[in-house]
Amino acid sequence: MFRVGIIGFGKMGQIRAKTVAEYKRADIAAIYDVNPIVNPLAKVAQSASEIINDPTIDAVFICTPNYLIPELCIKSLRAGKHVFSEKPPALNAEQLVEVIKAEKGANGLKLMYGFNHRHHESITRMKEIVGSGDIGRILWMRGRYGKEVDESFLNGWRADPKLSGGGIFLDQGIHMLDLFLHLGGDFDQAHSFVSNLYWKIEGVEDNVFAIYKNSSSGVCASLHSTMTQWRYLFSLEVFLEKG
Questions:
Q1: Residues 6+ apart with CB under 8 A from 19
Q2: Is residue 201 very low, low, confident or very high in pLDDT (cuts 50, 70, 90)?
Q3: pLDDT at 38 over 90
Q4: 237 - beta bridge partners?
Q5: Most Cβ neighbours (<10 Å): which of 6, 106, 207, 233?
């Protein structure tokens, strides 16, 4: 039986634990969180390192605030563990380069991030249509992803740029960027405007307007990520040569 450890047992850690339990092809060997765990589903480790260095654990789920993710992924891979982590993979390009190096040197271990939108039925169907070529190649894409937050947001770790690394783009917009890459391939040009006109949290943007281009294919994609939408909105449009 595959044995997994979960580092970070807040909302997402508990969701991952529930999924593992329902899957019935893996056991939860240990869990860890900096806060006391009420009604633990497995052994409670005393540290993240205890899970990472346990030779009986095959895979690690990393469900922590953003700033901890890169280091924990690297340490887990180097300890011989498969890794499933929440996004974002890193807070900047320099950190991501180090993660990539660790993954390449991990002898085939799996590293996966929680870009769950790829698995929504509508996106799966989009991917099939694009891949078939039946209505031609992609010309351009447009994505909008927005939500509302209230004053309680100010009390959480996402409102601290040292912990989150940024605002709505790393929180939600990164999902839309991932879908652009999933459907249309890489981009080599990017331009953006970032603002925090409403919540006014230094280093935590509440709106991002970005445009990307692949110079080889000519495909462009525009993205708006916002937490002043005042209602949840997800909209992804892909325009091909015939429709």
A1: none
A2: very high
A3: no
A4: 142
A5: 6
